[in-house]
From TrEMBL:
GO terms for molecular function: 23S rRNA pseudouridine(2604) synthase activity; RNA binding. It catalyses: uridine(2604) in 23S rRNA = pseudouridine(2604) in 23S rRNA; uridine(35) in tRNA(Tyr) = pseudouridine(35) in tRNA(Tyr). It comes from Limnohabitans curvus. Residues 15-77 form the RNA-binding S4 domain. This is Dual-specificity RNA pseudouridine synthase RluF. GO terms for biological process: pseudouridine synthesis; RNA processing. Keywords: RNA-binding. It is an enzyme of class 5 (isomerase). PROSITE patterns: S4. InterPro entries: PsdUridine_synth_cat_dom_sf, RsuA_PseudoU_synthase, S4_RNA-bd, S4_RNA-bd_sf. Its EC number is 5.4.99.21. Pfam families: S4.
Amino acid sequence: MNSSKSVGDRPAEGERLSKRIMQLRDCSRREAEQYIEAGFVRVDGAVVQEPSRRVTTQHVTVDAHASLLNLMSVTLILNKPAGWTDGLEPLPMKKPAPVGRAAVPTRVPKGPQNVRTLLTTEQHSKHDHSGVRFLKSHLAKLDASVPLEYEASGLVAFTQDFRVQRKLMEDMAFIEQELIVDVRGEVTPDALRPIERAMRDERLRLPDFKISVGSANPERSKLRLAVKGSHLGLAVYLCELAGLEILALRRIRLGRVSLGDLEEGAWRYLSEGERF
């Protein structure tokens, strides 16, 4: 009987980097993984952030000042393109290949693109002035809770911080969001009177909101809509009341956090002084 193993059955060479760090720091496996994911570990002088990386004779070091006490959860601000889902839905899971078989690419059903696919190193804004040092672990375990219309673009928040997530969920009714509504043609303040009448009609039970004309020209006008809470479809409903055709919808502010000049499709860190 031939007991030789095929190349594919041979054990992987070396040991996991996390195991080497457990030996160097005399720590648990999870702590070793955190040191690596936080960028404190170098292999032959280069920072490595993958605990599963295998090492043999390479020189492995841990930053002398490495500490797990200051590792922080982050919040990301992303500028969602129109026609993308808002990321509240998870990405489709890939079905693992059966044991002993080669992995076969999984077909993902065609459909709207999920903005979570934009949370990559490549989409990190070059104009991020937060001062936060990028770690691969910052792109994992991110929650979202404030929906944005599929047709709209603008600010979407993702967070690892349970305190931020709790505020956005529990206090959303008191957090104001601001949207820019581009409509066709030149709009005068008088054109908004049907909306003002609806605002005073208690039977409609509309949320408290403010709407005004920001700029107008014969081709296109910009309306500013501010409303507390999450009210999907409100902008469309109000424009229908006034007979206005929406060309574009964009969320530019959520609470005290503004989209600013963040590029479409890019993300940045929430700065230390920013609060929703």
